[in-house]
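Long-time lurker, first post. I've been practising inverse folding by hand and with some scripts of my own, and I keep getting stuck on stretches where the structure tokens seem ambiguous. Below is the full token string for one chain I'm working on. Before anyone asks, I'm not after the true native sequence, just a reasonable design that respects the backbone. If someone could post their per-position residues I'd love to compare against what I wrote down in my notebook.
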């Protein structure tokens, strides 16, 4: 299972730029790592705390000496680094990477993924453009590169590995409602306004909340490494009638979202995190690029806009906050089905590594789809039990295996979300048996091999200690030449001792 080519990411962070560009690139780099690839983040500007976070995730980080973000020198140095590491794709996340910068990278032979938030280029010179915002599908994107892929909307929201793992655990447990919060008055409030907050909007919010002692809130406030107002925030916490905890360098964000009844956030990438948890939210616009995000969330009743009509003024803010905290259902529909599924990074890297395939643990809602594939005539003919499977029998089997610790059921999708097939693993004694089926419309396109390859990698990543050295067994009819070739190409070896005239047994051990 050869790893994909190294991935080069160019992104910056500062008090003026904010930290969101680099933080979401951490999510992309993690997903690429999970495919077996190596990622490097290049920056001209980045606070030490963010650099430490990048390296803690075992992502390579390098500083460029160039002056001028997005300058010609910046582009030349990025090209040189990409050439030295044999990168195929370069990802650009920042509004200073304009048309000429993109052209320079493509002229040097790289494929370019440009990350956008509001259409900062009128025309793009990129092979793919990513805008994860909820309003992105409404924008008019144009690229001078034929065949440019536009990855638009919250299906491509880049959430970090901890969120992706939680999404998989929920699906494996059959927990469709695990992310839905009931509408109750908010008592446990999370406040997170990004990594810098130069205008100390966090302080304005805490001061307004302190003027509402009757609410008796528990407040956890995230203070980014680039925030210059830490001492002022400490004084507000000390003198507060509420219980206020200031948190820095937080790694386990999922635990904070699970704790919270509601969240106040900036209109940046953090929005897709609390939306994954279905939390009632109030949002603040801290920069011009956040304005369309805040406006879209407000219009869709996914959050309360605290920036509107001078709402951050001292005389108005406490009134609006109290109304929202006591009656969040009046101003937000965030308790409805979440519009972020935490699989966006996997969709994007499925394009970057060339496979255009990603996996998701099967949920009970996938039972009908699995049933259709399992009863496909070609699947039945190649199986050891050729008779059609009754629905009741299939549903009982699916429910028992979907939640079993001795089974893994995955559904494969392409980058656009079209279902491609399934892979299953079942423990039998001291080994695991594997099976795969692909949708009839996708046969002959090497999809089965890609699905199995990803499933084996994902299985190993679940628990490397247990999976390392684990025997994986494929049982195949001798006349099923495509399946035999599939597993042989992935390194499965024929087990002559167990192979019979009716059944070829192929095995591999995960390294």
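-- Answer (accepted) --
I ran through it position by position. Result:
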């Amino acid at each position: 299972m050869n790893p994909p080519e190294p991935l080069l990411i160019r992104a910056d962070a500062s008090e003026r730029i904010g930290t969101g560009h680099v933080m979401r690139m951490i999510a992309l780099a993690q997903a690429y790592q999970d495919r077996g690839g190596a990622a490097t983040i290049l920056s001209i500007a980045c606070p030490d705390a963010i650099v430490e976070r990048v390296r803690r995730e075992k992502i390579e980080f390098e500083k460029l000496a160039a002056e001028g973000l997005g300058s010609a020198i910046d582009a030349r140095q990025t090209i040189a680094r990409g050439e030295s590491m044999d990168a195929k794709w370069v990802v650009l996340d920042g509004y200073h990477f304009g048309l000429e910068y993109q052209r320079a990278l493509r002229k040097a032979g790289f494929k370019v993924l440009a990350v956008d938030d509001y259409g900062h280029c009128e025309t793009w010179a990129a092979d793919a453009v990513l805008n994860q915002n909820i309003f992105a599908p409404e924008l008019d994107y144009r690229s001078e590169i034929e065949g440019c892929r536009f990855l638009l909307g919250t299906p491509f929201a880049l959430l970090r590995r901890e969120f992706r793992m939680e999404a998989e655990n929920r699906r494996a447990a059959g927990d469709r409602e695990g992310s839905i919060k009931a509408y109750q008055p908010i008592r446990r409030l999370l406040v997170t306004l990004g990594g810098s907050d130069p205008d100390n909007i966090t302080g304005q919010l805490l001061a307004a909340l302190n003027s509402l002692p009757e609410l008796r809130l528990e407040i956890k406030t995230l203070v980014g490494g680039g925030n210059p107002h830490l001492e002022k925030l400490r004084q507000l916490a000390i003198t507060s009638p509420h219980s206020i905890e200031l948190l820095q360098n937080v790694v386990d964000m999922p635990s904070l979202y699970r704790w919270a009844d509601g969240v106040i956030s900036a209109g940046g990438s953090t929005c897709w995190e609390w939306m994954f948890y279905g939390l009632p939210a109030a949002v603040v616009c801290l920069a011009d690029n956040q304005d369309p995000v805040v406006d879209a969330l407000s219009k869709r009743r996914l959050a309360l806009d605290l920036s509107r009509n001078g709402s951050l003024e001292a005389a108005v803010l406490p009134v609006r906050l109290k109304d929202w905290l006591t009656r969040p259902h009046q101003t937000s529909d965030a308790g409805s089905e979440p519009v972020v599924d935490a699989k966006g990074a996997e969709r994007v890297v499925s394009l970057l590594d060339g496979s255009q395939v990603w996996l998701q643990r099967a949920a009970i809602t996938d039972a009908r789809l699995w049933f259709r594939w399992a009863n496909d005539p070609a699947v039945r003919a190649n199986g050891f039990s050729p008779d059609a499977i009754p629905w009741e029998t299939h549903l009982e089997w699916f429910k028992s295996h979907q939640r079993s610790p001795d089974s893994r059921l995955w559904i494969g999708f392409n980058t656009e979300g079209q279902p491609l097939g399934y892979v299953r693993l079942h423990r039998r004694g001291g080994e695991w048996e594997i099976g795969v089926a692909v949708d009839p419309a996708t046969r002959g396109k090497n999809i089965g091999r890609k699905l199995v390859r990803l499933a084996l990698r994902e299985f190993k990543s679940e628990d490397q200690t247990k999976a390392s050295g684990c025997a994986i067994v494929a049982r195949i009819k001798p006349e099923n030449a495509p399946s035999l070739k599939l597993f042989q190409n992935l390194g499965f070896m024929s087990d002559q001792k167990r192979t019979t005239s009716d059944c070829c047994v192929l095995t591999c051990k995960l390294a």
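A couple of notes from the structure itself: The two ends are 11 Å apart (CA to CA). The first strand starts at residue 7 and ends at 11. Happy to go over any region you disagree with.
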